[in-house]
Amino acid sequence: MNPFLRILTILFILISFRPAVAQVEVNPDSLFVQAKKLAFEDKNYIEAIKLSKQALQANPDYLDIQVFLGRLYTYAEMPDSARVEFKKALDLKPDYEDTFLAYGSLEYWTKHPEQALVIINEGLAYNQKSEALQLLKARVLAELRRYQEANSTLSALLEANPVNTEARALYGNLGSLISNNKIGVNYDYVYFDKQFDDPWHLTSVEYSRLTGIGPIIGRTSLANRFGNTGTQFELEAYPLLSKTFYAHLNGAYSSSSVFPTYRAGFSLFAALPAAFEVEAGFRMLNFGEPIWTYVGSLSKYYKSFLFTLRSMMTPINSSVSKAWQFNTRFYIGGADDYLTLGLGTGLSPDNPRNNSLFNNGQGYNLKSNSISAAFQHSIKTSNIVVLRASFADQEYRQNTHGNQFEVGIGYMRRF
Fold this sequence. Notes:
Elements lengths: L2 H20 L5 H13 L4 H14 L4 H13 L3 H14 L4 H13 L3 H14 L4 H13 L3 H14 L4 H10 L6 E12 L7 E12 L2 E12 L2 E10 L7 E9 L8 E11 L3 E11 L3 E13 L2 E12 L2 E13 L6 E8 L22 E12 L3 E15 L2 E15 L1
Antiparallel strand pairs: 1-2, 1-14, 2-3, 3-4, 4-5, 5-6, 6-7, 7-8, 8-9, 9-10, 10-11, 11-12, 12-13, 13-14
């Protein structure tokens, strides 16, 4: 072949292959989409890391992929590698909110709350109005048991955005942790149009102390019922078991027939995603023989509302007596400022007004419908005032109904 024709043939072949080479060009956006699918849908963090690295090789300044790579290392439980990637992201853009949020979350999840707080505060210096960083800061402060600071952070957040559901839920959980000590006094007056000739009076005094495991409450109650006066001694606790779970324990004793001889209760609460909370537990009343009630509830925080549906089941021979309660709480300020409206049917062992109807099992199948309302307001954080009222159409003997009216007032002081 002519040397000149040979050279032209080689050049033609090389030119023909150029478009094929161009077709394998890396698209960072496409790789980013694939990596997110692998991470969030398939939980395949290792392959997602590989794709993210390929995308960064094609575009080293792609900040969102850089932060995402740090998150992937966090999910894959490789915190040292995650820290390296987050520091690279801060070098690319020192004020990027998402970097501080991801980096602070890593330190919070890996049990380094002090370091998390440093990172979050640096992020807030650049992004003062970031609700996500403020909420994470409150969680970290609560982890450090710096409850007052956590409360102040959430107060500022909710003042700017009262409908932040996650902040409202956390604020509610912090309510009992703000101060180490609390004293309170309550009084309730109950009037009956038929069931009893004389009204009932119930007064209680309590002291609460925040301990390393959670709040513990001691309470003494004095009641005048059926023309008799009696005293009940009670101990209550809310141990914090983890970030997800806490419990409620209650026990009481009385030597008077005005109260059950023994009363006990236990509930386990779990905080779920999307501001849900569930409860499962039991109550026991003993007037000589134990009466058991099993309790379950579902709560949901939505904007400034807390909705709670509670079910109470009391076994009786071959059947089960049922009671239901639905409560709506509307927050008008902080965790201690709200209005409550409740609707109920059946007897609740948690209501001391009707404990006596469980005596000798007579309350098992008695029907009751009730409506209640309450208002609670804090004054300068340390003082809390409570007003409450309720009405019930109560069957106190088979096919015999009467009306009950109750009003109450309470005061608590934190110190």
